[in-house]
Amino acid sequence: MDGGLGCLSGRTFGIRTSIIQNESFVEGFTDEKWLGVVPLVAADDDNFLTRYLVNHGWKIAFQCVKEAELSTTLENNAKFLSQCVRWRRTTWRSNFTSLFVDRVIWHDQPFSTYALHLSSFNLPALIMDPLLGYLLYCAVDASAPGSYLPTMSTTFMLFFLWLAFTKTVKFVGYFHQYPSDLKFLPVLYAFGYLHGFIHFYTLLTLYKTNWGGGRTGITQACKALTFDSFPPSDLEHGTQDAIDCNMLKRVGSSGTDIRFSEKKMMGLTSLKREASPASDGPSLREEKNLPANKIWEM
């Protein structure tokens, strides 16, 4: 609604080389510390990229076309829980930074600040749902005989239906496309409550930045690649001024994770707000030769 978003996935968007060659970007990307204490060189890379673009006035365009549709395969073992823990920690740290340190989103993305960033601090379903059930029980139990309130059994049947609806509605599109997965609805509900434990555990362990088997100590490698992989003099205007961020990572599980790919980007692209044509090159539509109805600017 207002161009806001939580986090750009580094594996699904392209970014202008002029951004990653900027000295302030390199320093922040390699030396960022949460609250000036916790070094984040081993984590939070996608969140840093997103905050940097927002804080420095770059526009973000979303290609909503079938050709740009991406999918991913999640882990089917204990590594998935490790991923959830890492993602939740980065959300805590990044949203706190956006709201109370950078504070740009308050005036640039007011609706997203309310609906997305602030909502991440809400109590999880593990706490809220039993609390709502208890308050509802007290309200019905205290009602006078013959009042407009339904019976206790009817009230809680409606309450459980309402809970199921609120936990399912955002997946309607997915289940419409994959109706056979409806059998996993109980798992979906159970995971929602399990995530409550992750919510509190990560809040108490924000000082941890481990990747889950990844490497650390790659600051100099990031700096060297940022400047040397795509020197400005070697770029052809309008053809390589946006690169794929699939492998723009602070740290990963192998030695090949820190590199820049020259593949044609298909996802999210950063555009400078109110930049002059001379300094910013052709528009996204000219660069990618996409019709106007193929691009949605968020």
Architecture blueprint of SSEs:
Layout: E1 13-16, H1 17-20, H2 23-31, E2 33-34, E3 38-39, H3 45-55, E4 58-62, H4 78-102, H5 105-108, H6 110-117, H7 125-141, H8 152-168, H9 172-177, H10 185-204, H11 219-228, E5 242-244, E6 268-272, H12 277-280, H13 284-288, E7 296-297
Parallel strand pairs: 1-6
Antiparallel strand pairs: 1-5, 2-3, 4-6, 4-7
Helix pairs in contact: 2-11, 3-4, 4-10, 7-8
Structure in words:
The chain is an alpha+beta fold. It has 13 helices and seven strands. The chain has helices at residues 17-20, 23-31, 45-55, 78-102, 105-108, 110-117, 125-141, 152-168, 172-177, 185-204, 219-228, 277-280, 284-288, and strands at residues 13-16, 33-34, 38-39, 58-62, 242-244, 268-272, 296-297. The strands form two sheets. The protein has a five-stranded mixed beta sheet. A hairpin with a 3-residue loop joins strand 2 and strand 3 (38-39). The longest helix has 25 residues, at 78-102. The radius of gyration is 23 Å and the shape is globular.
